[in-house]
Amino acid sequence: MDRSYYFSDRANKMQRSVIRELLKLTNNPEVISFAGGLPAPETFPVEYVKRATAKVLVEEHRKALQYGATEGDPRLRKKLAEIMQRDGIDADPEHVLVTTASQQGLEIMAKVFFNPGDTCIVGLPTYLGGLQSIKSYGGVPVGVELDDDGMIPAKLVEKLDELEAEGRRPRLLYIIPDFQNPAGVTIPLERRKEIVKIARDRDYIIVEDTPYRQIRFRGKNEPTFQSLAPERVLSLYTFSKIMLPGFRLGWAYGPDWLINKFVMAKQSMDLCTPPFNQAVTYHMLEEGALEAGLETIIKLYHSRCDLMLAELEKNLGDVEGVTWTKPDGGLFLWLTLPEGMNSDDLFTKAIEENVAYVPGSAFFPMNEDHRSMRLNFSYSDEDQIVEGCRRLGKLIKESRS
Amino acid sequence: MDRSYYFSDRANKMQRSVIRELLKLTNNPEVISFAGGLPAPETFPVEYVKRATAKVLVEEHRKALQYGATEGDPRLRKKLAEIMQRDGIDADPEHVLVTTASQQGLEIMAKVFFNPGDTCIVGLPTYLGGLQSIKSYGGVPVGVELDDDGMIPAKLVEKLDELEAEGRRPRLLYIIPDFQNPAGVTIPLERRKEIVKIARDRDYIIVEDTPYRQIRFRGKNEPTFQSLAPERVLSLYTFSKIMLPGFRLGWAYGPDWLINKFVMAKQSMDLCTPPFNQAVTYHMLEEGALEAGLETIIKLYHSRCDLMLAELEKNLGDVEGVTWTKPDGGLFLWLTLPEGMNSDDLFTKAIEENVAYVPGSAFFPMNEDHRSMRLNFSYSDEDQIVEGCRRLGKLIKESRS
User: Fold this and answer.
1) Helices (H) and strands (E) in chain A, counts
2) Residue A401 pLDDT
3) Are residues A168 and A279 in the same domain?
4) Taken in order B236, B241, B244, B246, is the CA torsion positive or negative?
5) Same domain assignment for residues A164 and A298
6) What does the alpha-carbon distance between residue A258 and residue A265 come to, in Å, rounded to a whole number?
7) Which of residues 65 through 84 in chain B touch A, CB cutoff 8 A?
8) Distance CA B158, CA B67 (A)
9) CA angle A68-A70-A74, nearest 5°?
10) Which of B136, B205, B265 sits opposite A11 (nearest CB)?
11) What is the pLDDT of residue A212?
12) Do A99 and A137 reside in the same domain of the chain?
């Protein structure tokens, strides 16, 4: 029975996330999953959470269990601005909007910027949750190729010329500059400056989505887009990867004319992010939970990443045409198969062999790539990484011949 | 500088909630505020929260601090279905979607049902958060008059005839059947049946928003719309008023073809409602926090409501043309001024006299009424209610002459 009659046009175009459906297949405990984007639960700062919840429930429960301001807890907004200040940003707490994690930031972005049919620049590949939000408002993501240094400025100019010539001027540039999801690559300073110049010359807003920035294993961080072009950059942050995802807590930051619109849009979405979670997070930050936790996270993910790189080399180093990125941080790397192979088809076999990844097609606006896959190295332990890479290597080699 | 150029049409129409701006004026501790919709913080079941958080953090922190399913924690969904079953609904846990409180339910409703320009039946007056979500997607709320028994079926038929004749068939009927916000009125069974018949005959979806249903002081609950027409009713619930608002936890319930669409829409909004808050709430329900808390809430709000009714009678009983509703539950009553008076204008004077309410215009689709006000009786203590009613009575009498 056709029920489309009842729904909005946008609802009739909605689809269940392919990924979420795939991930259900990986619930089998036999499966070694490099598919999800889950942080390692052993890094959750449980003792800090215990102390902070106890404190909140004794000292400020009347406030923490009540409704709160849409903008967020003023104490927390100040702390979040301080985190940004330590990262070289001249951040004003008044420009911080606490969000129900950065997925809500993406939803707000899509709601305030996109009319149906409006285009948007995204990486090829890019975060599928971003694609989902943009598409859910009828936005049309248009991809710009990445290389090992992230989005390629010359390709960006080419695409903008093309779209502008067609009268399809994009609403914004959606960029994940640090340890990009899914590719794992980071944009160096010179390239950031080039992208900023392009955005300034043509008057584009940049949305900088940076959930992994603080998880750097080697080298040092490049300046944020926010610090380079504060007048036109809207930044999205989250605690999901750097502390814990179970509170659903993140924040958006930008110039007042942008952040004010975000506040208005958030009001009708959930009135406010849970004040209890905000109060607990505030006290955790006061106690240094972020710094202590990051030390653990960086050490663990660094060693898991290096192990995965070594095991891929061991199992696939001699297979012509197989390449993968070498991240300096984050949670993911990106593997490309030799020409002629198909990572969507391979997925079914992989599940049979009890190893899982996310087919790269999920990260392309039109699912147009079929030779790539995203591998997560944060969630599986060392034995699983070794065995998973062995299974994956065997599978790729066998399927190739 | 005009920045509208950067934003979507819907964002350019967004406005900061008038109410939220008004409420800022009531932050002055001298002001006795009947304006907000806050539950009394002394009713928050703090000891239950303490025990449940401690339990979760010891026994299931790896799961509760991790990402969760969009649909919600299966244990909690089962509990929520049980709450509905005890209320005479044949509820299936699989049809429960946990939401980040019922405001998110309203946002999802607006997103999945409204194309720009689509109409929607609402009460005159109705909850302003509902109006805000609907309008934020370009939906056009069309009001149907209420009386002391809620929405008037004859008026509903009239309005539907009119809209259908104009080719502006509404997307749905948005109804708050129990202790309506803001009017405080409840729809009796016969009238519910009439409304269901109208919806069935003309094939309309009903969205039943029922945050206060369990806060009944006298009489007994009427059957839910969900129980009367499960094939076409989408119900929205929240713990904000019956337990605490600071977790931002609610749920949506409906037939699978509706709830599936809601799940898809929620995915891009925040991936999932905080799993930690869900786990804590599950254990609180297990321990009986809801029943224990409701007993306290009902007793307290009952006595505050009766006190406010008595004080209004004392201060305004002899003023011709002033009327107010007599709620059997909930948090609000609705006061109407004599012809010629204006509750928007009066608000400024009220603030000067240190008493606050929400002008009724906020609850009308076009802000078209100026003779009414919403009074909240859950938040102020007894002394404040007595003194606030005295100030309000004096003000109304003086402004009248």
Assistant:
1) 15, 14
2) 67
3) yes
4) positive
5) no
6) 11
7) 65-68, 70
8) 48
9) 65
10) B265
11) 97
12) yes
Query: What is the distance in angstroms between the Cα of A67 and the nearest Cα belonging to chain B?
Result: 5
B68 and B23 in a single domain? The answer is: no
> Of the residues B290, B306, B341, which one is the last residue of a structural domain?
B290
Domain identity same for A266 and A297: no
Residue B294 Cα, gap to closest chain A Cα (Å): 16
Contact with chain B for residue A268, Cβ under 8 A: yes
Tell if the CB–CB gap between B132 and A101 is shorter than 8 Å: no
Structural domain count of chain B: 2
Residue-wise pLDDT for B275-334, tens only, equals 999 999 999 999 999 999 999 999 999 999 999 999 999 999 999 999 999 999 999 999
Handedness of CA A382, A383, A386, A392 (dihedral sign): negative
Q: Nearest chain A Cα to B10, which residue? A: A112
- List pLDDT tens digits, range A185-234: 999 999 999 999 999 999 999 999 999 999 999 999 999 999 999 999 99
**pLDDT tens digits along B72-100:** 999 999 999 999 999 999 999 999 999 99
B chain contacts of residue A16, beta-carbon cutoff 8 Å? 263-264, 267
- Has residue A395 been placed in a domain? yes
Assign B217 a pLDDT band (cuts: 50, 70, 90): very high
Strand (E) or helix (H) holding A299: helix A289-316
In the structure encoding, which two tokens stand for residue B203, read together?
């094939």
Inter-CA distances, A326 with A307, A323, A335, B285, Å: 12, 10, 10, 48
User: Domain check: are B264 and B324 in the same one?
Assistant: no
User: Which of A260, A289, A318 is the C-terminal boundary of a domain?
Assistant: A289
Return the CATH number at B354. Answer: 3.90.1150.10
Instruction: Write the residue in A57, A104, A205 that is nearest to B50 by C-beta.
Output: A57
Among B272, B64, B137, which Cα is nearest to A104's? B272
pLDDT in tens, B334-368: 999 999 999 999 999 999 999 999 999 999 999 99
Query: How large is the ipTM?
Result: 0.97
Residue A235 tokens read as 């930044």
Question: With an 8 Å Cβ cutoff, are A65 and B44 in contact?
Answer: yes
Measure B278 CA to nearest chain A CA, in Å. Answer: 10
User: How many percent of chain B have pLDDT more than 90?
Assistant: 94
Enclosing domain of residue B327: 4-44+292-400
CATH number at residue A278: 3.40.640.10
Cβ contacts (< 8 Å) between A263 and chain B: which residues? 16
Residue B173 contacts residue B207 (beta carbons within 8 Å):
yes
What is the number of other CB atoms lying within 10 angstroms of the CB of residue B383?
A: 9
Query: Which three-class secondary structure state does DSSP give residue A329?
Result: strand
| Residue A60, in any domain of the structure | no
Segments of chain A scoring below 50 in pLDDT: none
Show the tokens assigned to A162: 């093309």
| Residue B122 shares a structural domain with residue B171 | yes
Same domain for B244 and B179? yes
Taking every pair of Cα atoms in chain B, the longest distance, rounded to a whole number of angstroms, is 66
Q: Is residue A70 part of a domain?
A: yes
Identify whether A142 is part of a domain.
yes
The rounded mean pLDDT for chain B is 96
